[in-house]
Design brief:
Length: about 140
């Protein structure tokens, strides 16, 4: 076993430690060379989704289809576990750091974390109408351009 001399204030670098440091620096450089560059255009196409949680204090689930136009508009078709459903229009925006915000006609707002290629995202409802607890989250996946 190689001997590592211990000196106060100094590190004895082994080949394995140097390799780990080089790998870490390479990963950091790659990450900074490829910063996130999202925009409204990142979300374009037809997405299928499902969400679940609590809506106005009651268990709730919903599934549907959203069509994003790449310019900030959404057309939503959905069916909820409480019998609600229909077609609505909504708006969205995606910032350069790939965090999105959608606003729906009933006042719900969703915060999303979008994959840089726009193929999928996860979201949480961050605002909802009504005085009861609402805690919903879900995911969407693009199924058509």
């Amino acid at each position: 076993m190689p001997s590592m001399l211990r000196r106060p204030g100094r590190i004895a670098w082994t080949p394995l430690m140097l390799l780990a440091l080089a790998a870490g620096l390479g990963a950091a450089t790659a990450a900074s060379a490829n910063p996130l560059t999202c925009s409204n255009a990142t979300l374009k196409g037809t997405y299928l989704y499902n969400e679940s949680g609590v809506l106005n204090g009651k268990p709730y689930a919903e599934s549907g289809r959203e069509v994003y136009d790449g310019r900030g508009g959404i057309v939503l078709s959905y069916q909820g576990s409480d019998g609600s459903g229909g077609v609505e229009k909504a708006t969205y925006r995606v910032s350069a750091d790939c965090i999105g915000m959608a606003t729906y006609p009933d006042g719900q707002k969703a915060t999303s974390f979008v994959s840089p290629d726009g193929s999928r995202f996860v979201y949480t409802i961050t605002a909802a109408p009504g005085s009861q607890t609402t805690a919903l989250s879900g995911s969407e996946v693009r199924v058509a351009p």
